[in-house]
Specification:
The chain is of the alpha+beta class. It has one domain. It is built from five helices and five strands; from the N terminus they run αααβαβαβββ. The protein has a five-stranded antiparallel beta sheet with strand order 4-3-2-1-5. β3 and β4 form a beta hairpin. The radius of gyration is 23 Å and the shape is elongated. The protein starts with 7 loop residues before the first helix and ends in a 21-residue tail after the last strand.
Length: about 300
């Protein structure tokens, strides 16, 4: 019996059906891939934070790694490891992560997010472990960078993740292993000053890290190391504590509000100094997550942000 071949029309129908199925499946596959990257990103943040908490469990007072307490001010005219006042100028993002890598809490590759889209962010592949020499007053590789607002080809940022700004009462009271389930410690980067309108929001590359690319979504790690995927800069359970904002009533706190002329959280007098002295305008123990490559004072650190997408 002679075998019958497929006609051209039949082949075209099969091709059309396959093309239709592919068209239906591709969005689902892309969504699944993005979800997998978001989960991996969450796991990376959690691993970084868990390593820091483990280090805090070994330190006096349960303090999380703090560059200014690692590379301190001179004591008695000498640089003596572990002695001297905190050098707040050392509390930079690049120093924080570099110090942790130097002490082998984690490797540099974990600092590069699985969902990263900003070309300024690069994985740091040639970390100089030999730079860790406390006897020579050297505590980390100084070549790590956190220039998230830099120029491609000139600057780099060697981390994808924001962390609690290391100054003020927020640092003194909450950058420790207190297992506070309401206090964010690390997160996906946010938009400048925590705004949710205008170009600073709509054109921020951080909107493309997770979610629909029209609104911000991200992973947040809390003091007890639990992770939450949130769709707002003011997650449930995170409250504004300082000053007299909204008539003294506690309201949801913005993860990325950074003071000055930014949202109203930092428009008040702030919290009383831990010593009971006059209030400090930036002393609030409120949340303020970000990347800040330029150091800090006891009360002030100004984060930097991704340059806007202008295409």
């Amino acid at each position: 019996m002679k075998k019958r071949a497929f006609t051209l029309v039949e082949l075209l129908v099969v091709v059309a059906i396959i093309a239709l199925l592919v068209g239906l499946l591709l969005p689902a596959l892309a969504k699944a891939q993005q979800t997998a990257k978001t989960v991996k990103d969450s796991n990376q943040i959690k691993q970084i934070h868990t390593a820091m908490v483990g280090r805090a469990n070994e330190s006096k007072g349960g303090k999380m790694p703090t560059p200014g307490l690692i590379n301190r001010l001179a004591y008695g005219g000498q640089q003596i490891p572990g002695e001297g006042e905190e050098d707040f100028a050392q509390n930079k993002t690049q120093n924080l992560y570099s110090a942790c890598v130097a002490q082998q809490l984690f490797n540099t590759d974990i600092l590069y997010g699985a969902t990263e889209v900003n070309p300024i962010v690069k994985a740091y592949t040639n970390y100089n472990y030999g730079a860790y020499r406390p006897a020579a007053d050297s505590y980390w590789d100084p070549n790590m960078q956190a220039k998230i607002d830099g120029t491609v080809g000139t600057n780099e940022c060697h981390t994808s993740f924001a962390h609690l700004i290391l100054c003020g009462l927020r640092k003194q009271q909450h950058w420790r292993n207190n297992l506070d389930s309401s206090r964010p410690h690390m997160s996906t980067r946010g938009c400048k000053n925590g705004v949710t309108t205008g170009d600073e929001y709509e054109q921020s590359p951080t909107l493309r890290l997770h979610g629909p690319q029209k609104s911000w979504e991200g992973n947040v790690c809390f003091g007890d190391t639990h992770m939450e995927f949130v769709e707002t800069f003011r997650p449930d359970g995170v409250f504004y504590e300082c000053g007299n904002y909204n008539g003294g009533n506690l309201t949801k706190d913005n993860l990325f509000a950074c003071g000055g002329t930014a949202p109203a959280e930092f428009g008040g007098a702030g919290c009383v100094d831990v010593n009971g002295t006059a209030p400090q305008p930036w002393a609030g123990s409120d949340t303020m997550l970000g990347i800040h490559p330029n150091g800090a004072t006891k009360w002030i650190a100004i984060p930097t942000y991704d340059k806007l997408d202008t295409q």
